[in-house]
């Protein structure tokens, strides 16, 4: 769901390999595969639940995008996630793309989340925001333990709107999603690539794809301090170069993805001069707005 057909055996191999290589945090949602992703996590980590941190989400109630953030709906969603994950607690429960209006009109929601934490059903709660501006609003008006947000070499909104500084000041963890921009920052996708009908990447037009390709080309000299690193690894280490970032969650669909992505952890972080160079290229390539 989102990236076209997947293979369970390949997914399980990626999960177990990631765990063996030291990856301990796994982010999912009741929406992904409409619960099937959670079932795969349960299968992969049946014998080592205490050694992994499981983060899931709640808020979507059907595959058409309908949402319900009422306390009862969140509890029902959580019950389903616990059943599929085969566990009696989740380390992090995140509200999945709520609007500001929904949160303002839902007085009992945060009280319910606190109660679930008190009961031990969840260890912490956060918000997966639809945009960096939404995340900034949530950071200032509420106090989630974490905020999940888009951030990558082609989308610096979370850096420019003050979100990172706000989260550091308020001790809010930042979870970065889409560090590879749906694979377009790996250097392996081009303007003419085709995708499955159920793969959301088919919606990117030729102009946007061309900008991604151009960005990868222009960014190569910025990463000359790690000449053997791949574009994907450089994209991930860029994200990890900011102190406000608690963790990054790249999609890893097969074992080769796991090896490449986790290899970024041993690479040096970018210094201030290189980060400024990235920002300059970003302004040149994405001057019409971030993707």
Task: Using brief descriptors, characterize the structure shown.
291 residues; alpha/beta; TIM Barrel; 12 helices
Could you characterize what this model shows?
The chain is built from twelve helices and seven strands. The protein is 42% helix and 11% strand. The chain has a single domain (8-285), classed as Alpha-Beta Barrel (TIM Barrel), CATH 3.20.20. β2 (53-58), α3 (71-85) and β3 (92-96) form a beta-alpha-beta unit. With 291 residues, it is an alpha/beta fold. The radius of gyration is 19 Å and the shape is globular. A seven-stranded parallel β-sheet has the order 1-2-3-4-5-6-7.
Write the layout of secondary structure elements.
Layout: H1 8-20, E1 25-27, H2 36-44, E2 53-58, H3 71-85, E3 92-96, H4 100-104, H5 107-119, E4 125-128, H6 132-141, E5 146-150, H7 157-160, H8 163-170, E6 173-177, H9 206-219, H10 231-239, E7 245-249, H11 255-262, H12 272-285
Helix pairs in contact: 1-2, 1-11, 6-8, 9-12
